[in-house]
Amino acid sequence: MKTLKSFLFGMALFLAVTTQAQVSVNVNFGSPPAWGPVGYSNVQYYYLPDVQAYYDINASMFIYQSAGVWVHRTYLPSRYRNYNLYGGYKVVLNDYHGSRPYNNYREHSRMYGKGYHGQPQRNIGERPQNGNRNGHYERHYQPKKQPSHNNGNNKENGNGHSKNGNGNGHGNNGNGNGEGHNKKK
């Protein structure tokens, strides 16, 4: 019996010494966007002076005022649909670690007004070649509602901008009259 107790004690001691306890702490900083500036790994927010908005890297969301209220959206408002995120200056908020960077908006907008450019910045990634005709990226902007102009026709025979370039209204297949507005590749 004493031998069995000694054996079990020895096994327990052996397991305690050889087993390593692991503690994993996951801070989970989000991946910065390709249009973000190079060289900042532990930052949560950018301030975008040209559009008077913030970008939350962890949530991949823009924060801006809409009707006097700060909102979190995955896109910028439609008034900035031609804004080039790759070309615009990003103020990196190294010293802010809360959840409401807009509490400092008055100071940020005073220090970094529209058109502000500090030290030259390089982007993390390259500008994609599949942007729209102005080189801007529609997925970052609030979609603008398009009026319907099918003159009583169904989607297939509308008079308008068409997917295949053969129409003069807003039909999907553009079986209307005239020249379409499709890009030639």
Q: Give Rg in angstroms.
A: 28 Å
Approximately how much beta-strand content do the residues carry?
Answer: 5-15%
Count of helix runs: 2
Quote the average pLDDT.
72
Strand order of the largest sheet: 4-3-2-1-5
What is the CA-CA span between the terminal residues? 87 Å
Quick one: how many beta strands? 5
Q: How would the global form be characterised?
A: elongated
Report helical residue fraction: 10-25%
Tally of domains: 2
Secondary-structure element string? HEEEEEH
Q: Uncertain spans, ≥5 residues at pLDDT below 50?
A: 19-28, 132-138, 146-185
Helix/strand-derived category reads little secondary structure
Biggest sheet character: 5 strands, antiparallel
What can you tell me about this protein's structure?
This protein has two helices and five strands; from the N terminus they run αβββββα. It is mostly loops. It has two domains: 102 residues, no CATH class; 32 residues, no CATH class. A five-stranded antiparallel sheet has the order 4-3-2-1-5, with no helix packed on it. Strand 2 and strand 3 form a beta hairpin. It is elongated and about 85 Å long. It starts with a helix and ends in a 74-residue tail after the last helix.
Write the layout of secondary structure elements.
Elements: H1 2-18, E1 45-48, E2 53-56, E3 61-66, E4 69-73, E5 91-92, H2 105-111
